[in-house]
Amino acid sequence: IIPTAISPNGDGANDQWIIEGLEAYPDALVEIYNRWGGLLYQTNDYQNDWDGRMASSGTPVVDGVYYYVLVLEGNEDEVYTGDVHVITSKQ
């Protein structure tokens, strides 16, 4: 299950992008891009810990839509792509 939104606002709910079942793929590649194709986050050891920050600076991204590429390594690589909405404003 790949969530389509996170709200990393510190309220304890949906503060991180949790991909259920990913622990079965310890070498999974996760990449997150902005709308212009700029790479914001990349790892091949994802620990369900992306909290809407840019990997290079630790700066939170602005509210918006970001795009992911998820590659599950195995007998045949499975590639998933989609978008994740980051919503940081508290309601």
Q: Explain this structure to me?
A:
- It is a single chain.
- This protein is mainly β and 91 residues long.
- The chain contains no helices and 5 strands.
- The protein has strands at residues 5-6, 29-33, 39-43, 64-72, 78-86.
- The protein has a 5-stranded mixed beta sheet, with no helix packed on it.
- A hairpin with a 5-residue loop joins strand 4 and strand 5.
- It is globular.
- The mean pLDDT is 91.
Concise synopsis of the structure shown:
The chain is an all-beta fold and 91 residues long.
Question: What percent of the residues sit in helical stretches (DSSP H or I)?
Answer: under 10%
| Rg over CA atoms | 13 Å
Strand content: 25-35%
Identify low-pLDDT runs.
none
Q: Pairing-aware structural class of the strands and helices? A: mainly beta
Task: Tell me the total number of β-strands.
Answer: 5
Cα end-to-end separation: 26 Å
Mean pLDDT: 91
Shape: globular
Largest sheet: 5 strands, mixed
Number of helices: 0
Following the backbone from N to C, one meets helices and strands in this order, namely EEEEE
- Strands of the biggest beta sheet: in what spatial order? 1-5-4-2-3
Topology:
Layout (H helix, E strand, L loop, with lengths): L4 E2 L22 E5 L5 E5 L20 E9 L5 E9 L5
Parallel strand pairs: 1-5
Antiparallel strand pairs: 2-3, 2-4, 4-5
